[in-house]
Amino acid sequence: MSKIFWSPGLEQLEPYTPGEQPESKTLIKLNTNENPYPASPQALGLLKQYDFSDALRRYPDPESRELRRAIADKHKLTPEQVFVGNGSDEVLALSFYSFFRRREPLLFPDITYSFYPVYCQLFDIESRKIPLARDFSVQLQDYSAPAAGVIIPNPNAPTGRYLPLDEIEALLECQPQRVVIVDEAYIDFGGDSAITLINRYPNLLVIHTLSKSYALAGLRLGFAMGQKHLIQGLLRAKNSFNSYPIDAVAQRVATAAIRDTAWHADNCGKVIATRKRCEQTLAEIGFEVVPSQANFLLVKPPQPGAEAFNQALRKRDILVRYFNQPRISEYLRISIGTDAEMDQLIRNCKEILASQS
Ligand code: PMP
């Protein structure tokens, strides 16, 4: 059979595999940074009580107007400054496609969200990974090289390290004529959002998700915020792929979740309190703990090494995330669960350590 040629980027692409999603309900699942609590009762109540028959019979609002209005109101923006997609992964993909297919490389930290290199490969975008410092902090001075743009998660994943807003501003000033994306998937767990910089920086795009702090990973809803010209750029790409991006149910449920600000603040407070407690306890029993502003901790077990520790936890029905990649292969990423789940995790960690000595 003669060879069929297709996109060179696709030829070499290793399909991305997200963290394991087992069916079992008895496992303690701390491997994909999901929120351990049920979403806002306002949002979940809609699914139980609302009659969706008309909403599902008809096409959804192609512009997701109510949802964009709710997001804009919450973040003191206008709806024209908001773009919504099916999870922030889709918003990221459209952003890469719209802004970074240029002749220069896209810059991002060498340890970062593993989807970025996948999109570069898919869209034939060159990239340059900028090394992090030994303590995993971002080295700002290296971001002013000629570039197609910059993408940085804040807090970073999977390190959890956070860049304060003055450093984000410095980054925006390094590349005044290129799009700088700040992926704030985890910002609600303790950092200051760059949303407050949007009206001052025409090159800033901030991306959020309902998957983490809103406990709605299964709904698939993410959004980008930036000045109107950037949002227009995304709309051009989006409308060419799919003119009805968000389904009618997700639009309504997400709108209710965004409007329930009291639930959101309470949930973030609970996760942060649990993270702080675990940070301290894990350090006390000998783990090295990277400072985190996210809903996960990157930790280095004292013994027997991260891979073996991961296996030992797995045997005890606890799933965490092990990354077999340079610099972090000695570490495990542990998502913050409920207090009861984290107590079990810590008890099991102590037992594994005791079995080593
Ligand atoms: N950005 C970062 C930094 C993430 O860790 C994740 C979740 N894995 C995402 C974006 C994507 O989240 P979602 O597609 O669920 O909105």
UniProtKB/TrEMBL annotation:
Catalytic reaction list: L-histidinol phosphate + 2-oxoglutarate = 3-(imidazol-4-yl)-2-oxopropyl phosphate + L-glutamate
Pathway annotation from the record: Amino-acid biosynthesis; L-histidine biosynthesis; L-histidine from 5-phospho-alpha-D-ribose 1-diphosphate: step 7/9
EC class (word): transferase
Cofactor list: pyridoxal 5'-phosphate
Chain ranges of the Aminotransferase class I/classII large domain: 26-347
TM segment ranges: none
InterPro entries, alphabetized: Aminotrans_II_pyridoxalP_BS, Aminotransferase_I/II_large, HisP_aminotrans, PyrdxlP-dep_Trfase, PyrdxlP-dep_Trfase_major, PyrdxlP-dep_Trfase_small
Keyword tags: Amino-acid biosynthesis, Aminotransferase, Histidine biosynthesis, Pyridoxal phosphate, Transferase
Keyword Amino-acid biosynthesis attached: yes
EC number: 2.6.1.9
One BP annotation, GO: L-histidine biosynthetic process
Pfam families, sorted: Aminotran_1_2 (PF00155)
GO molecular function, one term: pyridoxal phosphate binding
Residues recorded as bearing N6-(pyridoxal phosphate)lysine in the entry: 212
Similarity remark: Belongs to the class-II pyridoxal-phosphate-dependent aminotransferase family. Histidinol-phosphate aminotransferase subfamily.
PANTHER family, A to Z: HISTIDINOL-PHOSPHATE AMINOTRANSFERASE, HISTIDINOL-PHOSPHATE AMINOTRANSFERASE-RELATED
Quaternary state and interactors: Homodimer.
NCBIfam families: hisC
Protein name: Histidinol-phosphate aminotransferase
Organism name: Microbulbifer okhotskensis
Native organism taxonomy: Bacteria, Pseudomonadati, Pseudomonadota, Gammaproteobacteria, Cellvibrionales
